[in-house]
C-alpha cells in the first residue's frame, strides 16, 4: 500500500488526473453558483424584468428563467458525470494498473 | 391558522436559512382539524405497509454483516440510489408545502424549488466521490480519517444526533398533523404508528429495507405527481399559457402570481438562503450515508445525476400542480359551487373566492387538486403516498442516528475498535428502538410547538457543525484534530445558543419581551465562525500529533482521488 502510494504520487498521470478533474469540478461549480445567484439577484433587483410578459400573453420571462435554472443544474451534473465516468475513470484505471 | 405564505414570508424577511425549513415544515404547523375518516386512503396505505413489511422481511434475511446493515452491502446501483436520495429529499412537507406556496403566491414557489435543487450539483462536483472513496458507514468515518478517533467521533456523533433529533421531531409532529388531516385519525395514533413502523423497518431490514422503502415511495410520489400535472395540463390542451391565463383570471392577485412577490426582499437574506441550503444539505447525516450504499465513486456520481434529475422534475411538477390548484379550486365547478373552499368564509366575503379559504389550509392544495382531477380513489392514493413519504424519511433519519451511536460512539469511542460486528449491530438495533420510542414521546410533547424552528435548527447545525469539518478534512492538508474538534464544537454550540437567543425561541417560545440576538437564522455567522475556528486552532497547533496528521494527508489524498484501498462492494 505504501509503495503503491509512492508510485501513484510519482506518476505524471496522477498529477494530470487531479489537475484536470479539480479544474473541471471548480469550473462547473462556479457556473452553477453564477446561474443560481444570478437568478436570486434578478429576483431581488430585477422583479420588473421577471414579471414582464413574453409577447402578448400572460407567461412572464420569470417562467423560462426559473425553468432554465432547474434544467441547468441537471445538465451540469450530466456533463460532469459523463466526463468523470469516461475520461477520468479511464485515466484512474491506468494509474492503478501502473502502480501495481 | 396563519397562511403558509405569511409564515414563510415573515421568515424570509427575518431569516435566511430558516426559509427552506419553513417551507419544509409549514405544511404541518399550527392547529389542524381532524377530517372525516378517509377509507380509500387507509386501504391504500395498508397495502403500502404490507408491501414494505414484506420487503423488510426479505431484507432482514439478507442483512447479516455490519456492511449489510449500515450500507445495504454496498450493492445499491447508482440509479436506485438516485431514486432513494430523491426520496429522502422529496418529503411530504416539501411536496404539500411548495404546491401550497405556488397556490397562494404563484411564482414565488418556484424560487424555493430552485433553492432546494442547486446544492446537488455542488455536492457532486466537490464532495460525492471523495466521500465515497474515504468513507465506510457514516460521515464521521470521512471526517475522522486521519485524526484522533475519540474526540473526532464524539464531536461528529453529537453533531449527527443533534441534527437527526430535531429533524425527527419535526417529521413526527408533521406526520401526526398530516394524518389527522388526511386520514381522520387521532394525532396520538398517527405518531405511534409512524414510530412502530420505522423501528420495524430499521431494526429488521437495516439500510437495505430503508433504501427500498424510500425507492418505492419515490416512484409512487413521482408517478402520482406526474399524473396530476398531466391531468391539469390536459384540461388546457397542454398549453401552459392557457393555464396561466385562467389562473390570473381567478386568483385575487391576478398577474401578480406570474412575478416575484414579497418573499425575498433583500439580496443578503436571498444569498444566505442559498448558502444554508447547500451547506445544510451537504451536512445532513442521513443524506451523506446514502453515498456508502453504492459500490464505487462511479456509481456515487451517477446517484447524484439521477437524484438531481428526479428532484428537478419533481419541482417542475409541483409548480404545475400549484397552478392546477389555483385554476381548479378557485374557479366554480359545473354547478357554480366551490367544493374545496370554506363555505362560511366564502359567504362572509360576499362569494368572492380567496386562496386562504381553502379547507384544511393552503397545504391541502395538492391534496384537493388530486381529488379534483382523479376523484376519491386518486385522492386516497395521494394521501397514502404522503403518509408513506413521512415513514420513509423517518426511517432514514433513525438509521443515521443509530449509526452515529453504534458505529461512532460505541465501536470507536467506547470499545476503541475492539467491538465485534455482531455487538455493533446489536447496539445499533437497540439504539433504533430507543430512538423510535423517544421520538414518539417527543412527537407527543412537541405537538403544538413551532416545527419550522426545529427543522431550521437541524439545517443550521448541519451547516455549522458537520459540514465545515467534513469539507476541511477532505480539502485542507493542514487541519489538525485540535482545529477540527474545536471548530466543530464551536459551530454546534454557537448555532444552538444563537438559535435559543433568537426571536423564535427567546421571544415567541419562552415569552421574553425582546430577543437577545436579532436574527432567526444564525447560520450567516456560525458557518464562517466554524471555518475560522478550524483554521485558527489548526495553524497554531504545533504538537507532534499535528505534524503526523499533516503528513497523513498525502495518503488520504491519494485514496480520495483514486479510490485506492476504498471500501468495495461485498459479494452478494
TrEMBL record, chain A:
The chain crosses the membrane at residues 23-46, 58-81. Keywords: Membrane, Transmembrane, Transmembrane helix. The keyword Transmembrane helix applies. Pfam families: DUF485 (PF04341). It comes from the Bacteria. GO terms for cellular component: plasma membrane. Signal peptide: none annotated. PANTHER family: INNER MEMBRANE PROTEIN YJCH. This is DUF485 domain-containing protein. It comes from Azospirillum baldaniorum. The lineage of its organism: Bacteria, Pseudomonadati, Pseudomonadota, Alphaproteobacteria, Rhodospirillales.
From TrEMBL, chain B:
This is Cation/acetate symporter ActP. Coiled coil: none annotated. The keyword Transmembrane applies. It comes from Azospirillum brasilense. It comes from the Bacteria. GO terms for biological process: plasma membrane acetate transport; sodium ion transport. InterPro entries: Na/Glc_symporter_sf, Na/solute_symporter, Na/solute_symporter_CS, Sodium:Solute_Symporter. It is found in: Cell inner membrane. It is a multi-pass membrane protein.
Amino acid at each position: 500500500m505504501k509503495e503503491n502510494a509512492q508510485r501513484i504520487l510519482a506518476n505524471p498521470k496522477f498529477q494530470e488526473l487531479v489537475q484536470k478533474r479539480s479544474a473541471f469540478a471548480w469550473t462547473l461549480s462556479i457556473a452553477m453558483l453564477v446561474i443560481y445567484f444570478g437568478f436570486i439577484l434578478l429576483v431581488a433587483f430585477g422583479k420588473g424584468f421577471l414579471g414582464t410578459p413574453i409577447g402578448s400573453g400572460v407567461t412572464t420571462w420569470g417562467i423560462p428563467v426559473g425553468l432554465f435554472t432547474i434544467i441547468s443544474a441537471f445538465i451540469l451534473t450530466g456533463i460532469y458525470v459523463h466526463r468523470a465516468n469516461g475520461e477520468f475513470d479511464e485515466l484512474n484505471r491506468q494509474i492503478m494498473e501502473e502502480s501495481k | 391558522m396563519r397562511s403558509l405564505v405569511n409564515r414563510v414570508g415573515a421568515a424570509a424577511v427575518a431569516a435566511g436559512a430558516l426559509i427552506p425549513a419553513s417551507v419544509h415544515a409549514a405544511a404541518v404547523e399550527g392547529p389542524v382539524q381532524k377530517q372525516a375518516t378517509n377509507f380509500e386512503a387507509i386501504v391504500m396505505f395498508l397495502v403500502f405497509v404490507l408491501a414494505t413489511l414484506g420487503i423488510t422481511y426479505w431484507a432482514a434475511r439478507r442483512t447479516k454483516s455490519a456492511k449489510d446493515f449500515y450500507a445495504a452491502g454496498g450493492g445499491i446501483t447508482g440509479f436506485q440510489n438516485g431514486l432513494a436520495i430523491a426520496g429522502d429529499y422529496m418529503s411530504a412537507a416539501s411536496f404539500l408545502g411548495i404546491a401550497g406556496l405556488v397556490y397562494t403566491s404563484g411564482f414565488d414557489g418556484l424560487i424555493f424549488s430552485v433553492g432546494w435543487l442547486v446544492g446537488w450539483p455542488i455536492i457532486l462536483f466537490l464532495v460525492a466521490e471523495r466521500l465515497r472513496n474515504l468513507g465506510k458507514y457514516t460521515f464521521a468515518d470521512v471526517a475522522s480519517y486521519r485524526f484522533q478517533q475519540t474526540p473526532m467521533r464524539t464531536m461528529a456523533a453529537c453533531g449527527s444526533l443533534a441534527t437527526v433529533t430535531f429533524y425527527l421531531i419535526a417529521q413526527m409532529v408533521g406526520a401526526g398533523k398530516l394524518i389527522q388531516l388526511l386520514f381522520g385519525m387521532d394525532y396520538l395514533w398517527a405518531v405511534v404508528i409512524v414510530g412502530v413502523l420505522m423501528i420495524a423497518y430499521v431494526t429488521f431490514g437495516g439500510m437495505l429495507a430503508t433504501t427500498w422503502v424510500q425507492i418505492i415511495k419515490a416512484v409512487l410520489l413521482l408517478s402520482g405527481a406526474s399524473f396530476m400535472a398531466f391531468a391539469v395540463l390536459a384540461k388546457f390542451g397542454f398549453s401552459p399559457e392557457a393555464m396561466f391565463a385562467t389562473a390570473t383570471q381567478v386568483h385575487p392577485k391576478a398577474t401578480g402570481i406570474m412575478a416575484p412577490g414579497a418573499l425575498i426582499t433583500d439580496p443578503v437574506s436571498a444569498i444566505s438562503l442559498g448558502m444554508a441550503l447547500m451547506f445544510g444539505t451537504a451536512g445532513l447525516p442521513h443524506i451523506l450515508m446514502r453515498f456508502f450504499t453504492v459500490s464505487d465513486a462511479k456509481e456515487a456520481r451517477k446517484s447524484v445525476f439521477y437524484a438531481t434529475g428526479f428532484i428537478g422534475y419533481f419541482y417542475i411538477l409541483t409548480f404545475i400542480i400549484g397552478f392546477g390548484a389555483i385554476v381548479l379550486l378557485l374557479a366554480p365547478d359545473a354547478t357554480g359551487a366551490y367544493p374545496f373552499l370554506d363555505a362560511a368564509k366564502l359567504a362572509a366575503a360576499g362569494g368572492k373566492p380567496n386562496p386562504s379559504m381553502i379547507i384544511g389550509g393552503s397545504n391541502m392544495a395538492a391534496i384537493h387538486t388530486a381529488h379534483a382531477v382523479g376523484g376519491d380513489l386518486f385522492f386516497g392514493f395521494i394521501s397514502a403516498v404522503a403518509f408513506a413519504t413521512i415513514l420513509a424519511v423517518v426511517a432514514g433519519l433513525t438509521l443515521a442516528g443509530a449509526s452515529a451511536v453504534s458505529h461512532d460512539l460505541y465501536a470507536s469511542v467506547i470499545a476503541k475498535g475492539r467491538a465485534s460486528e455482531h455487538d455493533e449491530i446489536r447496539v445499533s438495533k437497540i439504539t433504533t428502538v430507543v430512538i423510535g420510542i423517544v421520538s414518539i414521546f417527543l412527537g407527543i410533547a412537541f405537538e403544538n410547538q413551532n416545527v419550522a424552528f426545529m427543522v431550521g435548527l437541524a439545517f443550521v447545525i448541519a451547516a455549522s457543525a458537520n459540514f465545515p469539518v467534513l469539507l476541511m478534512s477532505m480539502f485542507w492538508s493542514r487541519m489538525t484534530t485540535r482545529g477540527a474538534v474545536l471548530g466543530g464544537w464551536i459551530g454546534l454550540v454557537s448555532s444552538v445558543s444563537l438559535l435559543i437567543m433568537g426571536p423564535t425561541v427567546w421571544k415567541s417560545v419562552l415569552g421574553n419581551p425582546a430577543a437577545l440576538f436579532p436574527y432567526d437564522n444564525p447560520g450567516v455567522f456560525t458557518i464562517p465562525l466554524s471555518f475560522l475556528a478550524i483554521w485558527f486552532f489548526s495553524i497554531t497547533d504545533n504538537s507532534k500529533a499535528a505534524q503526523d496528521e499533516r503528513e497523513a494527508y498525502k495518503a488520504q489524498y491519494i485514496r480520495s482521488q483514486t479510490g485506492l484501498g476504498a471500501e468495495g462492494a461485498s459479494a452478494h
